[in-house]
Write a structure and sequence with these properties.
About 45% of the residues lie in helices and about 15% in strands. It is an alpha/beta fold and about 400 residues long. GO terms for molecular function: isomerase activity.
């Protein structure tokens, strides 16, 4: 490696860390626990439990500010009152700048080190991860970037009308308009009336790969061996589930624990479990959204999120704010557009500003952009091909 060429990078990395460390030395140490106002919990909830951060980040994961080098690898330890290091950091979000974020992390980790929660070496690892992250950095739309063909796919729910009776014709038409990836949806041994062993060769024969497979929560809970077998039949690296509008916060917490448990076993098989949202996860219950419980209580090394852009936007949630709040968690996007009247539109023909969202793809950690239209017109294939063409033409 050219040491001269490496100096600018080291300078960019060391300077903010040095500045943050000096500033932290001049600031009073803040208590590690988040206040009721910071955590978003109501006083009533706090009075009912000794945990000052219910529904917060658990100690099962690491101090994590994004993928790869933004993951410190340091255990997300509790600070003594039920709050963890991550709870303390994100209680002070949003961050006006990357420098503000670094100052916050430096101050809080200094407090944790003084309290014996982390060592000096672990503090340095957390600070390095924070410096390498994009938290607090604004991502600009340059109109010079495009989504690669290799990363675009179709959720086959869009063509569900013809998949049971004419799968080969349907799949060939999708390949003809440019698709290289597909996400089948169904249940173990039942994808559009076929088993995985029956459908997988048809998908592969058409020239499509399957990065992600949609299944049910019951499959994960009751037939994990079947899930693994089906994922392997398709060659899928992700399996994703959806939730229920009837869930309470305790249900979200229970599902998060399930995702962690099955995620550990799936990871051994080379598969990552993912959660796909609708709109109901963003409804507040006692000041907390179910979606936040799912993200905070799942281990980012084991569980990914498949962010459905339509459903988030349909209930007034800004995908960019989600990405900034949970960097590195969104391996998959469902790229669906929102018509002015609230209905579904082909990608690029509705109201969602995809360029602004895609500018944060690196922060999100996106691997695949899967188009979908729940109510395709005039038919599934035509709608899918329109979405593909518009997505390929998009510059962000």
């Amino acid at each position: 490696m050219d040491r001269t060429a490496a100096r600018p990078f080291r300078t960019r990395l060391v300077r903010p860390l040095l500045a943050a460390s000096i500033a932290a030395a001049l600031l009073p140490l803040a208590p590690p626990a988040a206040s009721a106002a910071q955590s978003g919990r109501t006083p009533a909830v706090q009075e009912q439990t000794a945990d000052a951060c219910p529904w917060g980040y658990t100690s099962a994961g690491t101090v994590f500010f994004g993928r790869d080098r933004a993951d410190s690898g340091v255990p997300n330890r509790e600070l003594g009152d039920g709050c963890t290091i991550m709870d303390a950091v994100w209680a002070e979000a949003p961050f006006a700048s990357h420098g503000t974020f670094l100052l916050t992390v430096t101050r809080l980790t200094a407090s944790a080190r003084r309290d014996g929660v982390i060592s000096s070496t672990e503090q340095l690892r957390i600070l390095l991860a924070a410096a390498r992250s994009d938290v607090g950095k604004r991502q600009w739309v340059t109109h010079t970037r495009a989504v690669s063909d290799r990363r675009i796919g179709l959720v086959l729910y869009t063509v569900r009308a013809t998949m049971p009776t004419a799968p080969e014709t349907t799949l060939a038409a999708l390949v003809g308009c440019g698709y290289r990836n597909a996400e089948p949806s169904g249940a173990v041994n039942n994808f559009y009336g076929k088993t995985a062993a029956q459908l997988a060769p048809l998908v592969a024969g058409a020239g499509l790969t399957v990065p992600s497979l949609g299944i049910g929560l019951g499959d994960l809970e009751n037939n994990l061996d079947g899930v693994i077998a089906d994922a392997r039949a398709f060659g899928a690296k992700y399996v994703r589930i959806s939730g229920s509008g009837s869930w309470g916060l305790a249900d979200y917490s229970r599902v998060a624990a399930t995702l962690n448990t099955v995620g550990a076993r799936l990871k051994q098989a080379g598969i990552t479990v993912a959660y796909h949202n609708h709109g109901f996860e963003f409804t507040e219950q006692d000041g907390v959204r179910g979606y936040d419980v799912l993200v905070r209580e799942t281990d980012p090394r084991l569980v990914a999120m498949e962010l459905d852009l339509y459903w988030a936007a349909s209930v007034g949630v800004d995908p960019v704010q989600l990405i900034q709040q949970y960097p590195g968690r969104f391996s998959l996007f469902h790229v669906k557009d929102l018509a002015a009247d609230g209905s579904f539109a082909d990608v690029g023909e509705g109201t969602i500003d995809f360029a602004r969202i895609f500018a944060y793809s690196g922060v999100a950690g996106v691997e695949y952009y899967l188009t979908e239209n729940d109510s395709p017109r005039p038919d599934g294939v035509s709608s899918a091909c329109d979405s593909y063409a518009n997505l390929r033409a998009l510059r962000y």
